[in-house]
Amino acid sequence: MRFKVFATAVLASVALVGAANAQQFFRIGTGGTAGTYYPVGGMIANAVSQPGKIIVTAQASNGSLGNVNGIASGSMESGFSQSDVATWAQTGTGIFEGKPKIAGLRMIANLYPESIHVVVKKGSGIKSIADLKGKRVALDEPGSGTLINARLVLAAYGVKESDIKPEYIKPNQAGDKMKDGALDAFFFTGGAPAGAIAELASAGSGIELLPIDGAAADSLRKSSGFFAIDTIAADTYKGVGAVKTLAVGAQWVTSDKADTETVYQITKALYSDAAQKTLSAGHAKGKFITLQNAVQGVGIPFHPGAEKFYKEAGVLK
User: Fold this and answer.
1) pTM of this prediction exceeds 0.70
2) pLDDT for 34-43, tens place per residue?
3) Phi, psi (rounded to 5 degrees) for 184
4) Average pLDDT rounded to a whole number, residues 262-287
5) 20 to 30 A from 131, CA-CA: which of 18, 164, 165, 234?
6) Does 11 score more than 80 pLDDT?
7) Predicted confidence (pLDDT) per residue in 232-241, tens digit
Protein backbone atom coordinates (compact mmCIF):
# COMPACT_ATOMS: atom_id res chain seq x y z
CA MET A 1 0.00 0.00 0.00
CA ARG A 2 2.85 2.36 0.89
CA PHE A 3 4.52 1.66 -2.44
CA LYS A 4 1.26 2.40 -4.29
CA VAL A 5 0.86 5.76 -2.50
CA PHE A 6 4.52 6.63 -3.18
CA ALA A 7 4.18 5.68 -6.86
CA THR A 8 1.04 7.79 -7.19
CA ALA A 9 2.83 10.76 -5.61
CA VAL A 10 5.78 10.36 -8.00
CA LEU A 11 3.46 10.21 -11.01
CA ALA A 12 1.64 13.32 -9.81
CA SER A 13 4.96 15.16 -9.41
CA VAL A 14 6.04 14.14 -12.92
CA ALA A 15 2.70 15.34 -14.29
CA LEU A 16 3.13 18.72 -12.58
CA VAL A 17 6.67 19.13 -13.94
CA GLY A 18 5.43 18.16 -17.39
CA ALA A 19 2.62 20.73 -17.18
CA ALA A 20 5.06 23.42 -16.07
CA ASN A 21 7.33 22.64 -19.02
CA ALA A 22 4.48 22.19 -21.51
CA GLN A 23 4.35 24.34 -24.61
CA GLN A 24 2.41 27.56 -23.91
CA PHE A 25 -0.01 29.07 -26.43
CA PHE A 26 -0.47 32.84 -26.36
CA ARG A 27 -2.96 34.55 -28.68
CA ILE A 28 -2.83 38.20 -29.79
CA GLY A 29 -6.11 39.81 -30.85
CA THR A 30 -5.24 42.29 -33.60
CA GLY A 31 -7.76 44.05 -35.88
CA GLY A 32 -9.24 43.83 -39.38
CA THR A 33 -7.02 42.34 -42.09
CA ALA A 34 -6.86 45.69 -43.97
CA GLY A 35 -5.48 47.65 -41.01
CA THR A 36 -2.06 47.84 -39.36
CA TYR A 37 -2.66 45.71 -36.24
CA TYR A 38 -3.06 42.52 -38.27
CA PRO A 39 0.28 42.50 -40.16
CA VAL A 40 2.18 43.89 -37.16
CA GLY A 41 0.62 41.24 -34.93
CA GLY A 42 1.71 38.51 -37.32
CA MET A 43 5.27 39.88 -37.36
CA ILE A 44 5.43 40.05 -33.57
CA ALA A 45 3.98 36.56 -33.16
CA ASN A 46 6.64 35.10 -35.46
CA ALA A 47 9.42 37.12 -33.84
CA VAL A 48 8.69 36.11 -30.23
CA SER A 49 7.52 32.50 -30.62
CA GLN A 50 9.87 29.90 -29.15
CA PRO A 51 8.94 26.48 -30.62
CA GLY A 52 8.61 23.86 -27.94
CA LYS A 53 8.14 26.54 -25.24
CA ILE A 54 5.85 29.39 -26.29
CA ILE A 55 3.78 29.61 -29.48
CA VAL A 56 2.34 33.07 -30.10
CA THR A 57 -0.38 33.48 -32.73
CA ALA A 58 -2.10 36.58 -34.14
CA GLN A 59 -5.80 36.51 -34.93
CA ALA A 60 -8.03 39.01 -36.74
CA SER A 61 -10.58 40.80 -34.55
CA ASN A 62 -12.79 43.90 -34.33
CA GLY A 63 -9.92 45.90 -32.81
CA SER A 64 -9.25 47.67 -29.53
CA LEU A 65 -12.59 47.40 -27.72
CA GLY A 66 -13.16 43.85 -28.91
CA ASN A 67 -9.67 42.89 -27.77
CA VAL A 68 -9.90 44.25 -24.22
CA ASN A 69 -13.29 42.58 -23.83
CA GLY A 70 -11.83 39.34 -25.23
CA ILE A 71 -9.01 39.49 -22.67
CA ALA A 72 -11.54 40.10 -19.89
CA SER A 73 -13.63 37.09 -20.97
CA GLY A 74 -10.59 34.84 -21.39
CA SER A 75 -11.20 34.22 -25.12
CA MET A 76 -7.68 35.54 -25.88
CA GLU A 77 -4.54 35.92 -23.79
CA SER A 78 -3.58 39.33 -25.13
CA GLY A 79 -4.45 41.91 -27.74
CA PHE A 80 -3.61 45.27 -29.27
CA SER A 81 -5.43 48.36 -28.05
CA GLN A 82 -5.27 52.06 -28.51
CA SER A 83 -3.95 53.80 -25.41
CA ASP A 84 -7.26 55.59 -24.86
CA VAL A 85 -9.34 52.41 -24.93
CA ALA A 86 -6.92 50.55 -22.64
CA THR A 87 -6.96 53.38 -20.10
CA TRP A 88 -10.75 53.70 -20.17
CA ALA A 89 -11.20 49.94 -19.81
CA GLN A 90 -8.83 49.59 -16.85
CA THR A 91 -10.08 52.64 -14.97
CA GLY A 92 -13.79 52.43 -15.81
CA THR A 93 -13.83 55.89 -17.42
CA GLY A 94 -14.64 57.24 -20.89
CA ILE A 95 -16.68 54.73 -22.86
CA PHE A 96 -16.51 52.38 -19.85
CA GLU A 97 -18.23 54.91 -17.58
CA GLY A 98 -21.05 53.09 -15.79
CA LYS A 99 -19.89 49.70 -17.09
CA PRO A 100 -17.81 47.06 -15.29
CA LYS A 101 -14.19 48.16 -15.54
CA ILE A 102 -11.51 45.68 -16.61
CA ALA A 103 -9.35 46.26 -13.56
CA GLY A 104 -7.06 43.32 -14.40
CA LEU A 105 -5.92 44.75 -17.75
CA ARG A 106 -2.10 44.97 -17.82
CA MET A 107 0.51 46.42 -20.17
CA ILE A 108 3.07 44.40 -22.11
CA ALA A 109 4.38 47.20 -24.36
CA ASN A 110 3.62 50.51 -26.01
CA LEU A 111 4.33 49.82 -29.69
CA TYR A 112 3.92 52.77 -32.10
CA PRO A 113 1.81 55.88 -32.79
CA GLU A 114 -1.55 55.37 -34.49
CA SER A 115 -2.55 58.26 -36.69
CA ILE A 116 -6.16 59.31 -37.21
CA HIS A 117 -6.82 59.25 -40.95
CA VAL A 118 -9.87 60.94 -42.49
CA VAL A 119 -9.91 59.88 -46.14
CA VAL A 120 -11.79 61.59 -48.98
CA LYS A 121 -11.57 61.20 -52.74
CA LYS A 122 -9.22 63.63 -54.45
CA GLY A 123 -11.13 66.60 -55.86
CA SER A 124 -14.22 65.94 -53.74
CA GLY A 125 -14.29 69.52 -52.45
CA ILE A 126 -14.33 68.27 -48.83
CA LYS A 127 -11.55 70.21 -47.11
CA SER A 128 -12.40 70.07 -43.41
CA ILE A 129 -14.05 67.79 -40.84
CA ALA A 130 -16.83 70.39 -40.64
CA ASP A 131 -17.52 69.80 -44.37
CA LEU A 132 -18.62 66.22 -43.57
CA LYS A 133 -22.12 67.40 -42.58
CA GLY A 134 -24.67 65.73 -44.83
CA LYS A 135 -22.04 63.35 -46.28
CA ARG A 136 -21.83 59.55 -46.34
CA VAL A 137 -19.10 58.74 -43.82
CA ALA A 138 -17.78 55.34 -42.66
CA LEU A 139 -16.79 55.29 -38.97
CA ASP A 140 -15.59 51.64 -38.69
CA GLU A 141 -17.30 48.76 -36.91
CA PRO A 142 -18.71 48.75 -33.36
CA GLY A 143 -15.97 47.60 -31.01
CA SER A 144 -13.21 49.40 -32.88
CA GLY A 145 -11.08 52.22 -31.49
CA THR A 146 -11.55 54.07 -34.78
CA LEU A 147 -15.28 54.45 -34.15
CA ILE A 148 -14.62 55.95 -30.70
CA ASN A 149 -12.04 58.38 -32.08
CA ALA A 150 -14.25 59.33 -35.03
CA ARG A 151 -17.08 60.34 -32.68
CA LEU A 152 -14.71 62.45 -30.56
CA VAL A 153 -13.22 64.18 -33.62
CA LEU A 154 -16.62 64.91 -35.18
CA ALA A 155 -17.88 66.36 -31.88
CA ALA A 156 -14.79 68.58 -31.57
CA TYR A 157 -15.71 70.13 -34.93
CA GLY A 158 -19.37 70.54 -33.97
CA VAL A 159 -20.56 67.64 -36.14
CA LYS A 160 -23.12 65.27 -34.61
CA GLU A 161 -23.51 61.69 -35.79
CA SER A 162 -27.03 62.66 -36.84
CA ASP A 163 -25.52 65.37 -39.09
CA ILE A 164 -23.87 62.75 -41.32
CA LYS A 165 -25.02 59.55 -43.04
CA PRO A 166 -22.92 57.09 -41.00
CA GLU A 167 -21.84 53.62 -42.06
CA TYR A 168 -20.21 51.14 -39.69
CA ILE A 169 -17.82 49.20 -41.92
CA LYS A 170 -14.10 48.39 -42.02
CA PRO A 171 -11.62 50.52 -44.05
CA ASN A 172 -11.22 47.96 -46.87
CA GLN A 173 -15.00 47.89 -47.39
CA ALA A 174 -15.09 51.68 -47.13
CA GLY A 175 -12.36 51.95 -49.77
CA ASP A 176 -14.36 49.75 -52.15
CA LYS A 177 -17.49 51.85 -51.62
CA MET A 178 -15.52 55.05 -52.18
CA LYS A 179 -14.16 53.66 -55.46
CA ASP A 180 -17.75 52.95 -56.52
CA GLY A 181 -18.88 56.46 -55.60
CA ALA A 182 -21.11 55.16 -52.79
CA LEU A 183 -19.17 56.82 -49.93
CA ASP A 184 -17.75 60.31 -49.39
CA ALA A 185 -15.29 59.78 -46.52
CA PHE A 186 -14.02 57.30 -43.97
CA PHE A 187 -12.11 57.33 -40.69
CA PHE A 188 -9.28 55.02 -39.76
CA THR A 189 -7.04 55.10 -36.69
CA GLY A 190 -3.88 53.11 -37.24
CA GLY A 191 -0.23 53.15 -38.15
CA ALA A 192 0.60 54.78 -41.45
CA PRO A 193 0.82 53.52 -44.11
CA ALA A 194 -2.38 51.44 -43.88
CA GLY A 195 -2.80 48.90 -46.67
CA ALA A 196 -6.39 49.75 -47.62
CA ILE A 197 -5.62 53.47 -47.83
CA ALA A 198 -2.37 52.98 -49.77
CA GLU A 199 -4.24 50.84 -52.30
CA LEU A 200 -6.96 53.46 -52.69
CA ALA A 201 -4.39 56.27 -53.08
CA SER A 202 -2.79 54.41 -55.99
CA ALA A 203 -6.08 53.67 -57.72
CA GLY A 204 -8.21 55.90 -59.94
CA SER A 205 -8.28 59.59 -59.06
CA GLY A 206 -6.43 59.20 -55.73
CA ILE A 207 -7.22 60.50 -52.24
CA GLU A 208 -6.82 63.42 -49.87
CA LEU A 209 -6.50 63.33 -46.07
CA LEU A 210 -8.36 65.89 -43.96
CA PRO A 211 -6.29 67.71 -41.33
CA ILE A 212 -7.14 67.55 -37.62
CA ASP A 213 -5.45 70.64 -36.20
CA GLY A 214 -6.07 74.15 -34.92
CA ALA A 215 -8.51 75.06 -32.14
CA ALA A 216 -10.63 71.91 -32.46
CA ALA A 217 -7.60 69.64 -32.11
CA ASP A 218 -6.27 71.69 -29.18
CA SER A 219 -9.62 71.42 -27.42
CA LEU A 220 -9.71 67.66 -28.02
CA ARG A 221 -6.21 67.20 -26.60
CA LYS A 222 -7.17 69.23 -23.55
CA SER A 223 -10.24 67.09 -22.83
CA SER A 224 -8.65 63.76 -23.86
CA GLY A 225 -5.00 63.78 -22.79
CA PHE A 226 -4.12 60.49 -24.54
CA PHE A 227 -4.18 62.25 -27.95
CA ALA A 228 -0.82 63.45 -29.24
CA ILE A 229 0.01 65.87 -32.07
CA ASP A 230 1.04 63.92 -35.15
CA THR A 231 1.93 64.42 -38.81
CA ILE A 232 1.41 61.90 -41.59
CA ALA A 233 4.51 62.57 -43.67
CA ALA A 234 4.37 63.62 -47.32
CA ASP A 235 4.25 60.70 -49.77
CA THR A 236 3.25 58.20 -47.09
CA TYR A 237 0.37 57.76 -49.54
CA LYS A 238 0.79 58.38 -53.27
CA GLY A 239 0.17 62.01 -54.19
CA VAL A 240 -0.66 63.13 -50.63
CA GLY A 241 1.35 65.91 -48.97
CA ALA A 242 2.13 66.15 -45.24
CA VAL A 243 -1.03 66.30 -43.11
CA LYS A 244 -1.35 67.41 -39.48
CA THR A 245 -3.48 65.09 -37.37
CA LEU A 246 -3.71 63.47 -33.94
CA ALA A 247 -2.49 60.07 -32.79
CA VAL A 248 -2.92 57.57 -29.97
CA GLY A 249 -0.45 54.87 -28.93
CA ALA A 250 -0.85 51.30 -30.15
CA GLN A 251 -0.32 49.09 -27.11
CA TRP A 252 -0.02 45.36 -26.45
CA VAL A 253 -2.06 44.44 -23.38
CA THR A 254 -2.87 41.29 -21.43
CA SER A 255 -4.53 40.13 -18.22
CA ASP A 256 -3.09 40.07 -14.71
CA LYS A 257 -3.93 36.34 -14.85
CA ALA A 258 -1.36 35.71 -17.63
CA ASP A 259 1.63 33.65 -16.47
CA THR A 260 4.47 35.91 -15.30
CA GLU A 261 7.30 33.83 -16.77
CA THR A 262 5.52 33.51 -20.13
CA VAL A 263 5.02 37.30 -20.39
CA TYR A 264 8.62 37.89 -19.27
CA GLN A 265 9.98 35.58 -22.00
CA ILE A 266 7.75 37.11 -24.67
CA THR A 267 8.75 40.67 -23.72
CA LYS A 268 12.43 39.74 -23.60
CA ALA A 269 12.17 38.10 -27.04
CA LEU A 270 10.42 41.17 -28.52
CA TYR A 271 13.46 43.35 -27.80
CA SER A 272 16.12 40.82 -28.75
CA ASP A 273 18.47 41.87 -31.57
CA ALA A 274 16.98 39.30 -33.95
CA ALA A 275 13.38 40.41 -33.34
CA GLN A 276 14.27 44.11 -33.60
CA LYS A 277 15.90 43.56 -37.01
CA THR A 278 12.88 41.58 -38.22
CA LEU A 279 10.39 44.21 -37.04
CA SER A 280 12.37 47.14 -38.43
CA ALA A 281 12.60 45.51 -41.86
CA GLY A 282 9.09 44.05 -41.92
CA HIS A 283 6.78 47.08 -41.63
CA ALA A 284 7.04 50.87 -41.52
CA LYS A 285 5.72 50.84 -37.94
CA GLY A 286 8.20 48.15 -36.90
CA LYS A 287 10.91 50.82 -36.59
CA PHE A 288 8.95 52.38 -33.70
CA ILE A 289 8.77 49.14 -31.68
CA THR A 290 11.84 49.89 -29.59
CA LEU A 291 12.80 49.42 -25.97
CA GLN A 292 12.72 53.18 -25.42
CA ASN A 293 9.18 53.52 -26.81
CA ALA A 294 7.93 50.48 -24.90
CA VAL A 295 7.35 52.36 -21.66
CA GLN A 296 6.07 55.66 -23.13
CA GLY A 297 2.47 56.86 -22.79
CA VAL A 298 1.45 54.00 -20.53
CA GLY A 299 -1.75 54.69 -18.60
CA ILE A 300 -2.31 51.27 -17.00
CA PRO A 301 -0.11 49.06 -14.78
CA PHE A 302 2.55 46.85 -16.37
CA HIS A 303 2.17 43.09 -16.19
CA PRO A 304 4.73 41.79 -13.63
CA GLY A 305 6.48 39.74 -16.34
CA ALA A 306 6.95 42.77 -18.59
CA GLU A 307 7.89 44.98 -15.65
CA LYS A 308 10.59 42.51 -14.60
CA PHE A 309 12.18 42.67 -18.06
CA TYR A 310 12.01 46.48 -18.33
CA LYS A 311 13.66 46.87 -14.94
CA GLU A 312 16.43 44.47 -15.97
CA ALA A 313 16.85 46.45 -19.22
CA GLY A 314 17.09 49.72 -17.28
CA VAL A 315 14.10 51.51 -18.86
CA LEU A 316 11.96 51.25 -15.71
CA LYS A 317 13.04 51.96 -12.14
Assistant:
1) yes
2) 889 999 999 9
3) -95, -30
4) 96
5) 234
6) no
7) 999 999 999 9
